[in-house]
Amino acid sequence: MGIELVDEGEGWLEARMEIAQHHLRSGANALHAASVIALADSVCGFAAGNVLPECAKGHHDRTQIGLSQHGE
């Protein structure tokens, strides 16, 4: 998918994905929704791993993550 971790800090994470032809809907010049979901899912996973205590890593439990636009 080409998702790249750009920067991270306590309570936040920034990633980017360079859009290529394989991210577009077939027959249309528009971004496929699955590409956006893959980016969101990956970033949430990276961010969750950063805030979980060591004793919780590797366990599947509920984690709540808030999404916001950069700078908010």
* Spatial strand arrangement across the major sheet: 1-2
Number of strands: 2
Mean pLDDT across the residues is 78
Q: For the terminal residues, how far apart are their CA atoms? A: 26 Å
SSE pattern, N- to C-terminal: EEH
Largest sheet: 2 strands, antiparallel
Strand content: 15-25%
Total count of helical runs of at least 4 residues: 1
Any low-confidence stretches, pLDDT <50, length ≥5? none
Descriptive report:
The chain has 72 residues and is an alpha+beta fold. The chain is built from 1 helix and 2 strands. A two-stranded antiparallel sheet has the order 1-2. It is elongated. It starts with a strand and ends in a 21-residue tail after the last helix. The mean pLDDT is 78.
Topology readout:
Elements: E1 3-9, E2 12-17, H1 33-51
Antiparallel strand pairs: 1-2
Summarize the structure.
The protein contains one helix and two strands, in the order ββα.
Features:
alpha+beta, 72 residues, elongated, 1 helix, two-stranded antiparallel sheet
